[in-house]
Specification:
This protein is α/β, with parallel strands linked by helices. Helices cover 24% and strands 15% of the residues. The N and C termini lie far apart (27 Å).
Length: 68
């Protein structure tokens, strides 16, 4: 079930549970700036097929960096 978390929880999940980071901006924006280790699955492409590369046994953190 999705839930909002703060940056401290992101850091904890990355350190303790090897969480997966998914940036949902378009590929060109992902290329410009993203968190280290994040993979890109653009929001418009986010579906059952594109998420198959994720490890369902590990937490998934989905984020979008948007300065607007």
């Amino acid at each position: 079930m999705p839930s909002s978390i703060d940056r401290h929880e992101v850091q904890r999940l990355l350190a303790e549970q090897e969480a997966q980071l998914v940036e949902v901006l378009p590929a060109d924006e992902y290329a410009d700036e993203h968190l280290p280790g994040a993979i890109n699955i653009p929001l418009k492409e986010l579906d059952r097929e594109t998420t198959r590369r994720l490890d369902r046994a590990r937490p998934v953190i989905v984020y979008c960096y948007d300065d607007q």
